[in-house]
Every structure is written in structure tokens, then in C-alpha cells.
């Protein structure tokens, strides 16, 4: 199976990784990709929120399809969130065995009983999706379509990491292209120097 084209030749060498990883981590922290450590909590320090060093290729056609369907998925989540009878019946068994779900549903029922404090509501929904690489057994294409993995409503606190990840990737790619350009320059200069040296002998 062929692979999607990448703008960077991988794997990166150990020397390049040793140079770029600290820069990427510093850039990420300075631009808001920080979080408190769960195992070593401190009010005076942050650690990096997880991020991928390099971007993944994603076909524009499939990306545009995903963007186009988001309003439909968002409306679906909105309708489910406001359907008390559906939620009560669907989560009944989960509430009996899962304390976290039960507490959330109790909060939901309390808010519902008290009545909304305002007419408008805001939903933060994160869609996780991946490219399907083999829809059919004899499919030899790079990909066939994207598939929805899950919808997250609780884990949307790091919403800023979406656009920030793109900024981190731009920074990393800029650094890598700069290193590559400098490397090519040095190789060219070395070649010219060697040729001139040989010519003068």
C-alpha cells in the first residue's frame, strides 16, 4: 500500500531530534500548551501537554467532507443533550455501575429541575477521526475515506490545542527546513572548497 506524501523525510536523525525536540517543547509551553503534572503537582510549574512533533498528512478532500458534516453532528449532540427521556433510558444501566456517570446524570437532573438560568447554551464538541486505509479487502489505495472515532464533550477543555498544534507544527517545519537549507549550504560550500582545492593542486 502506498503512503501519503510527507513534506519531511523521515525518520529524522538522532542529531536533528536532539536539536528540534527541546525547541518544540519550549515553543509549545510559551504558546499555551502547558498543563499541571498529575503525579508531581506544583502551582509553580507546568509540563508540556502532549503533542505530535510532526503533522500527519490528511487529504484535503476528506478534510472538507469532515468539516461539512460537523454542523450535522453538532446538532445531533445538541438534540441528544436536550432529550431527557432518551438520556435517562440510555444511561440507566451505566448509572447503576459507573459512579462518574451517575454523578454527572445527577447534576443533569438537578439543573433540569431548577430550570435553565439562560436561554442560550453552548456546546464544545471535539470530533476524533482517522483515515480508513482499507475499506475493501482488495483495496490497494492509500486511503478510501475518514471514519468518526468518537465525539468528546467532556474532554474539550484543551480546545486551544487544536489550532495551537498547527502553530507548533509550522514552527517545527520552519526549523527543519532551516536546518536542511543550512546543511545544503554547507555541503555546497564544502564541495566548492574541495573542487577549488583540487584544481589548485
UniProtKB/TrEMBL annotation:
A GO MF label: glutathione synthase activity
Family matches, as InterPro entries: Glutathione_synthase, Glutathione_synthase_N_euk
Gene3D superfamilies from the UniProt entry: 3.30.1490.80, ATP-grasp fold, B domain
Annotated GO CC locations: cytosol
Protein name as annotated: Glutathione synthetase-like
Source organism (scientific name): Diaphorina citri
Amino acid at each position: 500500500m502506498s503512503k501519503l506524501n510527507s513534506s519531511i523525510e523521515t525518520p529524522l536523525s538522532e542529531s536533528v531530534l536532539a536539536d528540534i525536540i527541546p525547541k518544540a517543547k519550549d515553543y509549545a509551553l510559551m504558546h499555551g500548551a502547558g498543563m499541571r503534572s498529575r503525579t508531581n503537582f506544583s502551582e509553580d510549574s507546568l509540563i508540556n501537554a502532549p503533542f505530535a512533533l510532526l503533522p500527519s498528512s490528511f487529504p484535503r478532500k476528506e478534510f472538507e467532507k469532515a468539516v461539512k458534516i460537523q454542523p450535522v453532528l453538532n446538532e445531533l449532540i445538541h438534540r441528544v443533550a436536550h432529550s431527557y427521556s432518551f438520556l435517562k433510558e440510555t444511561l440507566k444501566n451505566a448509572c447503576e455501575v459507573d459512579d462518574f456517570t451517575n454523578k454527572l446524570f445527577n447534576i443533569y437532573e438537578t439543573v433540569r429541575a431548577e430550570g435553565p438560568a439562560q436561554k442560550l447554551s453552548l456546546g464544545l464538541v471535539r470530533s476524533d477521526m482517522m483515515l480508513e486505509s482499507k475499506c475493501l479487502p482488495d483495496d490497494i489505495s492509500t486511503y478510501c475515506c475518514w471514519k468518526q472515532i468518537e465525539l468528546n464533550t467532556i474532554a474539550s477543555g484543551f480546545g486551544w490545542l487544536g489550532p495551537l498544534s498547527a502553530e507548533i507544527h509550522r514552527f517545527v517545519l520552519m526549523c527543519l527546513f532551516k536546518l536542511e537549507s543550512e546543511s545544503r549550504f554547507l555541503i555546497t560550500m564544502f564541495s566548492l572548497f574541495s573542487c577549488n582545492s583540487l584544481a589548485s593542486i
